[in-house]
């Protein structure tokens, strides 16, 4: 695998041809003392994100809109620049008013607001949305919201090929991936398809200022779960592992500040950065036992997605603590600890600090849930660096059900 390659070029046109001719492209970096030239180049390079003279901040010159003040106010011009003229705004019922405000901002570009996104994307909900979008003859779905909204836009794109522009308002990370999920008959199934990867992602930390502290915390821990599992993924690699550690550090530092002061814009920016990195991890490598457990909890019992991830992460990390000692030592150190033996307790204590519910029973899991989740997980497992031991999993899930520290 090529990690870094040095190659000479004669002018900007040749440099652009070299950059866009590679199979890589999750991120790119430009170093120059001519910022005007850099921003012009950044708009032409085919990469998920483009840094200018730094790998520590994200620039408005990136193709995805960057991170900056009131980036969402540029949505109309971004849509026009990408050739869209008939846009459907998608939200949850709770965010319908925000969607209407966005539609008003878009003016003649917006054909309306579709406020029917719900958790876990039930196939019935997806079918109705696909029918509506097809009837409206739109050329873009603007997903304004979190994982549920972006998930519904992905279901539409999967069936119709209609491009997505995403404006995330939580830290779910789904906007950076080709992963989609649909729930049918209480079973959640996931897949990957390039059609569901948003064409444009617009990050605006100011939109998350109204996200309640509790939801922010759970959503951020949901993002962290993507980064944690990237560390021991079957197809892990040094670049994604580096991004995963940076994501975990950023989120673990930002989330306590947000819980303390939900209007802390610098903490919101740091959390958005961490979530973006986590989304790249999710989209670049496979996930493992934690995501299987959470897909079962969500698909079978319709538990709140972010909270299920936040609670379960401590137990899945504890289960895998000896499966990849080097990776788990890195995780512990990113969370302020030292040893792989601490990872479950460190995440559990972070959840305590953030005020996240600690018990699965408190978010809706029935008493027989741990046994059933263990059964379903072991009968159709994802890859995991250690084997699935049903009795051990059930015991851990019982502790998660009661909210007891993993051990």
From TrEMBL:
Q: Tell me if Transferase is a UniProt keyword of this record.
A: no
Q: What Pfam families does the record tag this protein with?
A: ADH_Fe_C, Fe-ADH
List, in alphabetical order, the Gene Ontology terms for molecular function in this entry. Answer: alcohol dehydrogenase (NAD+) activity; maleylacetate reductase activity; metal ion binding; oxidoreductase activity, acting on the aldehyde or oxo group of donors, NAD or NADP as acceptor
> Keywords in UniProt for this one?
NAD, Oxidoreductase
CDD domains, alphabetically? MAR
Quick check: keyword NAD in the entry? yes
Limits of the Fe-containing alcohol dehydrogenase-like C-terminal domain:
217-401
Record domain Alcohol dehydrogenase iron-type/glycerol dehydrogenase GldA: where: 68-205
Coiled coil ranges? none
InterPro entries according to UniProt = ADH_Fe/GldA (IPR001670), ADH_Fe_C (IPR056798), Alcohol_dehydrogenase_Fe (IPR039697), Ald_DH/histidinol_DH (IPR016161), Ald_DH_C (IPR016163), MAR (IPR034786)
The highest taxon in the source lineage is Eukaryota
Which family does the entry's similarity section mention? Answer: Belongs to the iron-containing alcohol dehydrogenase family.
Main function: Catalyzes the cofactor-independent reversible oxidation of gamma-hydroxybutyrate (GHB) to succinic semialdehyde (SSA) coupled to reduction of 2-ketoglutarate (2-KG) to D-2-hydroxyglutarate (D-2-HG). L-3-hydroxybutyrate (L-3-OHB) is also a substrate for HOT when using 2-KG as hydrogen acceptor, resulting in the formation of D-2-HG.
Name of the featured protein: Maleylacetate reductase
Provide the species name.
Answer: Oppiella nova
* High-level lineage: Eukaryota, Metazoa, Ecdysozoa, Arthropoda, Chelicerata
